[in-house]
Design a protein that fits this description.
mainly alpha; transport; membrane; quinone; NADH dehydrogenase (quinone) (non-electrogenic) activity; NAD
Amino acid sequence: MNATYLPADYIPVLIQLGLALGFIVTTMIVTHSIGPKRNSQKKDDPFECGIPVQGDARTPISIKYFLIAILFVLFDVEVIFLYPWAVNFKGLGMTGFIEMVLFMGLLLAGFYYVIRKGVLKWE
């Protein structure tokens, strides 16, 4: 079965795309043109949970914070791989077990490297 598609076959998709874009553009234009335009110093101030703004938001943050956050995400993703493996443990057999031992070995090697480098020591 050899299916050939002509450019005319995509006309419904292009019409739907055009209608969607037209709706978005029309909605944005109408809301900006008929919406209220009342600006004041109090209204334009940044609002954060009712707490008055103090200082500059661009203060430097320690790189350790970001490094620990990235490591948390990296090592937390293992659960995504461990859960399906645990659910289907018997069905995967010895091959699945060996693959998971290899995966956990690489993961623990990375964790050992992080600990040896002292990345998790917070001063």
